[in-house]
Amino acid sequence: MSYLNEPEVLYNLQVRFADRNCIYTYCGIVLVAINPYDDLPIYGNEIVQAYNGQDSNNLDPHIYAVAEEAFKQMSRFEQNQSIIVSGESGAGKTVSAKYAMRYFAIVGGSSHDETQKEISLVEKKVLASNPIMEAIGNAKTTRNDNSSRFGKYIEIDFKKDLTIIGAQMRTYLLEKSR
């Protein structure tokens, strides 16, 4: 979509999601995701490999396409990259961030088993910190039984050879009532 207006965006989302069962859509340079409230078979290792090293214009819209573009820009220009995941309560922001981190963990790996073990360990540690954060900062809402009441900034650190060496999660905007 090159000309964005509300009716065209809504129509495009209707066609992609309701008619074609595609949860991802590009609206300009923004990837829009509709939470299907269901597990979909679109996040496996074979899908990661399909997006790895590809031009995002050649493949269907996906969180992996956004992650791949950030990874390519980071490796090509040696500059930090950011992915902003935004939306309403229950939109799937936390899950989308997990999929992006998973993509980086797989793509930032190596063919060596030892490196893969290290990356798996880093990914597990980053993802394991989420339940701790949820325990002190989530609440039940009418739209989401486990709604985050805080924002998260996740930083993933890479070596020069593009393998993951660590990650940090920072929280901000914790609601005063929590």
UniProtKB/TrEMBL annotation:
Keyword annotations from UniProtKB, A to Z: Actin-binding, ATP-binding, Motor protein, Myosin, Nucleotide-binding
Q: Could you tell me the Gene Ontology terms of the biological process aspect for this record?
A: actin filament organization
Instruction: Tell me which Gene3D superfamilies the record gives.
Output: Kinesin motor domain
A Gene Ontology term for the protein's cellular component = myosin complex
Positions of ATP binding: G87, E88, S89, G90, A91, G92, K93, T94
Q: What positions does the domain Myosin motor occupy?
A: 1-178
Top-rank taxon of the source lineage equals: Eukaryota
Record GO terms (molecular function): actin filament binding; ATP binding; microfilament motor activity
Any one Pfam family here would be Myosin_head
InterPro entries for the chain:
Kinesin_motor_dom_sf, Myosin_head_motor_dom-like, P-loop_NTPase
Per its UniProt record, what PROSITE patterns does this chain match?
A: MYOSIN_MOTOR
SMART domains from the UniProt entry: MYSc (SM00242)
- Its family? Belongs to the TRAFAC class myosin-kinesin ATPase superfamily. Myosin family.
Q: What is this protein called?
A: MYO5A
Q: Which organism is it from?
A: Bugula neritina
